[in-house]
Write a structure and sequence with these properties.
The complex is a heterodimer of chains A (374) and B (306). In chain A, helix 7 (225-243) runs antiparallel to helix 12. Chain A contains 13 helices and no strands. The longest helix of chain A is centred in the N-terminal third of the chain and has 32 residues, at 29-60. Chain A is an all-alpha fold and 374 residues long. Residues 1-28 of chain A have low confidence and may be disordered. Chain B is mainly α and 306 residues long. Chain B is built from 14 helices and two strands, in the order ααααβαβααααααααα. The longest helix of chain B has 31 residues, at 3-33. In chain B, strands 1-2 form a two-stranded antiparallel sheet. Chain B is 72% helix and 1% strand. Chain B has helices at residues 3-33, 41-59, 62-86, 91-109, 135-139, 144-162, 164-174, 176-181, 186-212, 224-234, 239-262, 268-272, 274-286, 288-293, and strands at 124-125, 141-142. The mean pLDDT of chain B is 89. Chain B is globular and about 60 Å long. Classes of the chains: A mainly alpha (374), B mainly alpha (306). At the A-B interface, helix 6, helix 11 and helix 13 of A face helix 3, helix 4, helix 10, helix 12 and helix 13 of B.
């Protein structure tokens, strides 16, 4: 696996920017090992500093940080239930990290994973509500996957389209589209798709999906087929950029758009394609959320997964293996937040501080390293 | 309803709900003029809203509240400055880290203050002017922070385009190396710009909690900071045009609220899309024109010369 050394941070504006990641597999065993160890050490240092930073804030708030950390630890790693919930949480984090990582190969910054989740959820819900009674589960699952991916791809692709043909910065457009996406769900759940039964009076959500609409779960937990989809997606991501022509061309375009344009590569197609593919990943996460977790369409389903996915992608420096590791770590922290809300009487969102600190120190290390090499 | 009266109501609302965003747009304009994008603006707004509310609640003095809010917003922005200027980190990733920090921190420290009320700032009708037909209530019956916000636009314009400091700021945003070779210190200037930008964002947040709603709710800025980043493009990095951007956003926000109260048969959620869709549409119309106004160094990673 390549290391931190080959990172060129992308610039914000035009396509004529360096890519987020220049893939240069590092050859040579000895230096590879020491680089990996360095990377682990540097990350461990960042994690420790983040824990100390969050601890100080907890201390200032009159809480005992050791107690809080113990609660997080016990709540997550101390029981099989905790472990299973980490897996449940990390599923959308992995997919949303891919939604960032794929366009990042072209130097595009997709911050709209959150909105793409919502539209994926909408498409999946439409399939669930119309065909859920008609088809068996085994036939529904592929349709749900396709629908979720299509919805997300539509929303991501829209930002790509605006970038390719109108020059509108994809960071801005994907952010704005996020709000539109979440409002579309609110609108559908309170209007056209609203459950009109008396039991749901005053509620804004769709009817519960028919029983056939489900993803198989494992080990008597909420862990579901979604995690398998997420892992397969990571595998495809790795394969796409390592072995396919398309992935190779993406790297060329990302590395030097002008040269790519001169050599006849149609850049716009790649921009739209990468944004669609990224969006599809987030849309898949939206499908998994409504089908496996919620069982119906309702507002506010995503709860910031798209943004956490962004953090995961950056912590992992867009590398496939690390995306899984970092998604697990942030999954642990996120579920830890739920734990301390109940046990420590703290808002669940407090753990955002811990996530922010981790990214803070990791970015600091990345930046300083890049500066040293330039 | 009388259409003229309706229009007046919408415009009153435009000014009222555009103020908070205006502070943030002005702040982000300063940041970006120095070549730095700050998605953490949303975080600075939240921190401002939360600390402004808490201090006002504890001391009963809204002035002290907004002072602390501005300072807190500036401090948060310095975290961004440290990452992107001192460490040369990616600006968008750093901005999101700052946003998460602000989200978490305000959820934590603001928890005891949700559902409480403060006196805060109330609208002040300016004598005579506020009695002017039609425009009186639109322009001259607002809280003090609104008046300050609108004075801030021209002041920032003056500093930016008519002073040495402003020249230095713009020079750094156009070319750090040229600015450096003409004896300026790009890092220091970027730090100062980000601190001021964060202060303005903090004030914007405080306007929401201390003057507009007189309450604090977790995550109450609800993306206004992101909107501000978009509106900077709309205003083409110009503090006076930033006012137009903020009014456009405020206007579409207020229009959807007023349409809701009129009881149109349209879902409120569809109406709420208006500000976002309109912002997108106008950015599209601006298209290439905004490209030319973009500070050349915007978003490029900071590298201190070694």
């Amino acid at each position: 696996m390549a290391t931190n050394a080959d990172i060129t941070p992308p610039a914000a504006e035009p396509i004529v920017t360096p890519p987020a990641v220049v893939i240069q597999p590092v050859e040579g065993g000895g230096s590879q090992l020491s680089k990996t160890l360095n990377g682990i050490g540097s990350f461990a240092g960042a994690l420790l500093l983040a824990l100390i930073g969050f601890g100080i804030i907890l201390l200032l708030m009159g809480k005992n940080p050791l107690e809080i950390y113990a609660q997080i630890f016990e709540g997550t790693l101390g029981s099989t239930y905790g472990w299973s919930e980490i897996v449940v949480k990390m599923t959308p984090f992995i997919l949303c990290a891919l939604a960032v990582a794929i366009p990042a190969r072209l130097g595009l910054i997709n911050v709209g994973g959150e909105g793409q989740i919502y539209i994926g959820a909408v498409f999946a819900s439409l399939v669930a509500l119309t065909l859920g009674d008609v088809l068996p589960t085994i036939a529904l699952i592929p349709l749900l996957v396709i629908a979720g991916c299509l919805g997300g791809a539509l929303w991501g692709g829209l930002a790509g389209l605006l970038k390719a043909y109108a020059g509108l910065n994809e960071t801005i457009s994907s952010l704005l589209l996020t709000y539109v996406g979440s409002l579309i769900v609110d609108f559908l759940a309170s209007g056209p798709l609203k459950d009109r039964s008396t039991a749901a009076l005053g509620q804004s959500y769709s009817k519960t999906f028919p029983d056939n609409v489900q993803l198989p779960t494992f080990f008597d937990t909420r862990i579901n087929l979604g995690i398998i989809f997420a892992l397969i997606a990571v595998g495809l991501y790795y394969w796409l950029f390592k072995y396919t022509r398309w992935g190779y061309k993406m790297r060329v375009v990302g590395g030097n758009p002008e040269a790519a344009l001169r050599s006849g590569i149609k850049i716009n197609r790649y921009i739209i394609g990468a944004m669609m593919l990224g969006g599809a990943m987030a849309g898949l996460a939206g499908m998994i959320e409504v089908v496996a977790i919620q069982g119906r369409l309702r507002g506010g389903i995503s709860n910031g997964y798209g943004y956490v996915g962004f953090l995961v992608a950056w912590l992992a420096m867009q590398k496939p293996g690390r995306i899984i590791l970092m998604a697990a770590l942030l999954g642990l922290i996120a579920f830890g937040g739920d734990t301390i809300q109940i046990e420590g009487n703290l808002p669940a969102a407090s753990v955002n501080i811990l996530m922010a600190f981790i990214l803070f120190f990791v970015l600091r290390n990345q930046g300083l390293r890049a500066a040293k090499e330039s | 309803m009388d259409p003229i009266f309706f229009l007046q109501l919408v415009l009153v609302g435009a000014v009222r709900s555009g103020t908070s965003v205006l502070y943030a747009v002005l702040g982000e304009t300063i940041n970006e003029k120095a070549g730095i994008v700050n998605l953490g603006t949303e975080g600075s707004m939240l921190v401002g809203a939360c600390t402004g509310f808490i201090v006002t609640y504890q001391t009963g003095n809204p002035w002290l509240g907004i002072l602390v809010a501005a300072f807190a917003g500036g401090l948060l922005s310095l975290m961004h400055a440290y990452l992107v200027v001192t460490c040369g980190a990616n600006q968008l990733a750093s901005g999101l880290a700052i946003l998460f920090f602000g989200l978490g921190l305000t959820a934590l420290i603001g928890r005891e203050y949700v559902k409480l009320n403060i006196v805060g700032f109330d609208p002040i009708a300016i004598p005579i002017l506020s009695k002017l037909p039609f425009i009186g209530p639109i322009l001259f019956n607002h809280d003090i922070l609104t008046y300050i916000a609108y004075l801030m636009g021209p002041i920032i314009w003056f500093v930016m385009f008519r002073t040495r400091w402003g020249l230095a700021l713009r020079a750094v945003g156009e070319s750090r190396s040229v600015a450096f070779s003409t004896g300026r210190n790009p890092a220091r200037i970027a730090y100062i710009a980000l601190f001021f930008g964060g202060m303005l964002a903090g004030l914007g947040g405080a306007q929401l909690s201390v003057a507009f709603t007189h309450s604090w709710v977790e995550g109450m800025t609800n993306g206004a900071g992101f909107i501000a980043v978009a509106l900077v493009i709309f205003g083409m990095w110009h503090p006076i045009r930033a006012i137009a951007g903020a009014l456009l956003y405020g206007g579409s926000y207020s229009l959807q609220l007023k349409l809701q109260t009129l009881g149109f048969g349209i879902s409120p959620y569809l109406l709420q899309m208006l500000p976002y869709v309109l912002t997108l549409a106008i950015l599209l119309l601006w298209g290439q024109a905004s490209k030319r106004a973009t500070p050349a160094e915007l978003g490029s990673p900071f590298r201190t010369s070694n």
